[in-house]
């Protein structure tokens, strides 16, 4: 069940709070989406005030915004480590009752994510996985008791029909993501297509993740299992921190 409260104000609070984690000298992974955009703007402001950081963008969109706000950029292959990655999500497992602000990774899967609403999950996973610390920024509308899809798959263009068949065999249903403002499909920053795959509520996200990863033609799936170090959830009045 999704919760309500997905206002831009809540997103801003989450993004700005995560940006406070950035320290002088950090290499920071810059995620994609409207919530992370608030973090990128806040980091830009800190840079203006003298903070020295280098950002690694996860998409064309985050690269453009980082350039606009003056964050010096680098790339994964030019650094020896990434100190922190800040990124948004489409669904975040949160089994707490609102008072319990811990990530219960043991069997509840707290902090497991579905990403890829912005078709950027391949580079996001690359950068987020490389980071010493991965922080998710979200608003309450993203919190779920259990992941329930759809799960985005980035697929190479020639493979979209065979991958769709493979999803059927796994008991799912897939839709080729269409571009909003023009005819034709969404094309990712890597020149690929996106299949949004529904499987109903996910009983075992880790197992599904390894099955999806093994389908030829799948570049990356949007399941992020067991990767989150902390989640900042912006609300109408503050920020809830899950560690
Ligand atoms: C992009 C993503 C985004 O982080 C996710 O879609 C959340 O976006 P927003 O903060 O705009 O709700 O995974 O691929």
Automatic annotation (TrEMBL):
Matching InterPro entries: NagB/RpiA_transferase-like, Ribose5P_isomerase_typA_subgr, Ribose5P_isomerase_type_A
Gene this protein is translated from: rpiA
PANTHER family documented for this protein: RIBOSE-5-PHOSPHATE ISOMERASE
Gene3D superfamilies for the chain: 3.30.70.260, 3.40.50.1360
Task performed by this protein: Catalyzes the reversible conversion of ribose-5-phosphate to ribulose 5-phosphate.
EC number: 5.3.1.6
Chain positions recorded as substrate binding sites: 32-35, 87-90, 115-118, 142
Designated name of the protein: Ribose-5-phosphate isomerase A
EC top class, as a word: isomerase
Domain of life: Archaea
Catalytic activity: aldehydo-D-ribose 5-phosphate = D-ribulose 5-phosphate
Species annotation: Halostagnicola larsenii XH-48
Any one GO molecular function term: ribose-5-phosphate isomerase activity
Family in the record: Belongs to the ribose 5-phosphate isomerase family.
Biological process, per Gene Ontology: D-ribose metabolic process; pentose-phosphate shunt, non-oxidative branch
């Amino acid at each position: 069940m999704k919760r309500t409260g997905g206002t831009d104000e809540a997103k801003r609070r989450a993004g700005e709070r995560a940006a406070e984690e950035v320290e002088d000298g950090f290499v920071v992974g810059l995620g994609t989406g409207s919530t992370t955009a608030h973090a990128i703007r806040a980091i830009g402001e800190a840079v203006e005030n003298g903070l020295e950081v280098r950002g690694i963008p996860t998409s064309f969109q985050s690269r453009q915004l980082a350039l606009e706000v003056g964050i010096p950029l680098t790339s994964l292959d030019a650094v020896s480590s990434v100190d922190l990655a800040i990124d948004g999500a489409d669904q975040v497992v949160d089994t707490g009752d609102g008072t319990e602000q811990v990530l219960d990774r043991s069997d509840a899967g707290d902090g497991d994510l579905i990403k890829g609403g912005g078709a950027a999950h391949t580079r996001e996973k690359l950068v987020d996985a490389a980071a010493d610390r991965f922080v998710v920024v979200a608003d309450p509308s993203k919190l779920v008791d259990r992941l329930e899809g759809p799960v985005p798959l980035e697929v190479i263009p020639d493979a979209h029909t065979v991958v769709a068949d493979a999803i059927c065999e796994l008991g799912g249903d897939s839709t080729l993501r269409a571009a909003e403002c023009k005819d034709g499909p969404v094309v990712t920053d890597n020149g690929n297509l996106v299949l949004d795959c529904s499987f109903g509520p996910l009983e075992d996200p880790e197992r599904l993740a390894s099955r999806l990863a093994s389908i030829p033609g799948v570049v990356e799936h949007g399941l992020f299992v067991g990767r989150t170090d902390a989640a900042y959830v912006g609300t109408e009045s503050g920020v809830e921190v899950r560690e």
